[in-house]
Amino acid sequence: MVFKNIICPVCGGSCDDVQVDLDTKNRTIDVQNACKMGNAKFQEVVSSHRILKPTIRENGKVKDVSWEEALEMSADILVNAKRPMFFLGSETSCEAQEVGLHIAEYLGAPADSNATICHGPTVMGIQESGMVGATAGQAKNRADMIVYWGVNALESMPRHMSKYGVFPRGYWTKRGRFDRTMVTADPRVTPTAVASDLHLQLNPSTDYELLSAMFTILNGKEPHPSVEEITGIPISVMKQTVEMMKEANFVAIYVGLGVSSSYGKHRNIEIALNFVKEMNNYTKCNIGALRGHCNVAGFNQLASYLYGYPFGLDFMKGYPRYNPGETTCVDLLREKDVDAAFIMSADLVNHIPADCAKYLADIPMICLDIAPCPSTTAADVVLPGVIDAMECDGTFYRLDNVPVYFEPFTDSPFPETKSNEDTLKQLFAKVKAKKEA
Amino acid sequence: MEALLNTGSTIDEGRLAKGGNKYSDDYTKECAVCWMCAEDYTALGCPGKVSVTSRDGKHTVAVYPKVTEAMRSGQVFIPRSIWANVVVEPDTFSTGSPRYKGSPVTVEPTNEEVLSAEDIVLKLYMGGE
Ligand code: SF4
């Protein structure tokens, strides 16, 4: 049966035009419009490696158990820990993340999400400077200059250029790519850089210096000549770039981890945001983060709405605290500051530095996921995940913080649970029962 | 050779990771790879495998070298994956985000075996359990 306008639950692009032909008899799925990454995830609905049974690790051996036993053991781990950590990953709905946050609050635990190891510093930069933002649709219809700064859009959000950024024909950009100038700032010659009109191949970790030199030029001053050697970019090219921006009608800047993960972190973002504000004295200019994980923006929105902080929350004192560097997951694990972990819809062991991953593998860990990965290997309890936007409905936030409601085209393969939200609600009930017993 | 490590996505890394194939040979071939320029590769003696070591010398990972014009001398790139993260610095400069871009590393020729993602978890993180 063919389903149209399905939302892709893979990256922050949340493409809403995916067409799926699911053959339940022969267990095949044909996917149209999605990119390579999106297509791969849609194949998970019928894949042979899908995790279909809960497992637990007992004396070093992994064995299948019933849902009831797995949930019991998960609740035991969480209730018996002094300081369990919740990592509420981004490949699931806001609804599931919300229940996770409530469990963390109930247990007085820290709760974090992919933002912390993704655009956390970007969010901190926004807290410092505020952000001139726009929806992806605004950029599509108006932007005649696109800047990808520290992001390889073609490989991290493969359809960004074709759906929102560079190629689509918009109301004021009727000729698509021909109406747009594309600039990339990246130390590497990425496919995105190759497709650009101008590539600023700056030295690694010199984003701050380059941005402040361009800020100086924008203010009509001459930057210090040493900036050429530091950044590897001639001042004449910096001037040309600033001039191109000033002459454009609408500049859309997309930043990636190249800015927020390099030396300087949130300060890089802060100066980029200040540059954008200043640029608005000359032309329309906005900035946005290219968010690689599906619903990573959703956690920021949800946690800010519910508790006032976008990530790295800690409920230990009975009220939410937020102190990046102390209450964020990498720091908690590096400092061995937690004694159990609940990981949902994110392969944390794969994505964090060795010291943190090793400690995470040492402590009791519950992992909710759909396929075998380093986190499920290291976990003590594995709960099978339901695939959002394919097997259950819910809400994602797109890269530009626009909420997107998604509906499934098939059902959860588990009679025991309808969605990850449902699994977490069942777990919460068990946690409450044990805690209040 | 001392270098700055950059990590990030590649389309096939994304395809294999999102498709639940992190334990496949294809994933190892795509991600257990250290990109470098021809000049740096020659300076290392054109090895078949290289070890990448973190600045504090605590963590080392063996990967295959890949020569590419995408890189400049003194800079290396490993697709974001468990191999790269073995040597990424865990300090977050009070932001929560480790140094995925620009961790200083040492790259040397090696004869060590290139481990699969599963073996890295079992041998390096779970102590051979
Ligand atoms: S760009 Fe992102 S949301 Fe769109 S199809 Fe590809 S993975 Fe899915």
Question: Which keywords apply here?
Answer:
heterodimer, A: 437 residues, alpha/beta, Rossmann fold, Dimethylsulfoxide Reductase, domain 2, nine-stranded mixed sheet, five-stranded parallel sheet, 19 helices, 19 strands, 38% helix, B: 129 residues, Barwin-like endoglucanases, six-stranded mixed sheet, binds iron/sulfur cluster
Give the spatial strand order of the biggest sheet of chain B. Answer: 2-4-3-6-1-5
Mean pLDDT of chain A: 96
> What is the C-level CATH assignment of chain B?
Mainly Beta
Count of the domains of chain A:
3
Report the major sheet of chain B.
6 strands, mixed
* Cα-atom radius of gyration of chain B: 14 Å
The share of residues in helices of chain A is 25-40%
Name the ligand types: iron/sulfur cluster
Description of the structure:
The complex is a heterodimer of chains A (437) and B (129). Chain A is globular, with a radius of gyration of 23 Å. Helices cover 38% and strands 19% of the residues of chain A. Chain A folds into 3 domains: 2-41, no CATH class; 51-118 and 294-436, 3-Layer(aba) Sandwich (Rossmann fold); 120-289, Dimethylsulfoxide Reductase, domain 2. Chain A has helices spanning 36-42, 67-80, 94-107, 120-129, 136-142, 153-156, 160-165, 191-194, 207-218, 226-231, 235-247, 257-260, 266-279, 296-307, 329-334, 348-351, 354-362, 374-378, 420-436; strands at residues 2-6, 18-23, 28-32, 55-58, 61-64, 84-88, 110-112, 145-149, 181-185, 198-200, 250-255, 284-289, 313-314, 321-322, 340-344, 365-369, 381-384, 394-397, 403-406. Chain B has 129 residues and is of the alpha/beta class. In chain B, α1 (11-18) packs antiparallel against α2 (25-31). Chain B has one domain (2-125): Barwin-like endoglucanases, CATH 2.40.40. Chain B is globular and about 35 Å long. In chain B, β3 and β4 (60-67) form a beta hairpin. In chain B, strands 2-4-3-6-1-5 form a 6-stranded mixed beta sheet. Chain B has 5 helices and 6 strands. The N and C termini of chain B lie far apart (33 Å). Chains A and B meet through α1, α4, α6, α12 and α15 of A and β1, α1, α4 and α5 of B. The structure holds iron/sulfur cluster.
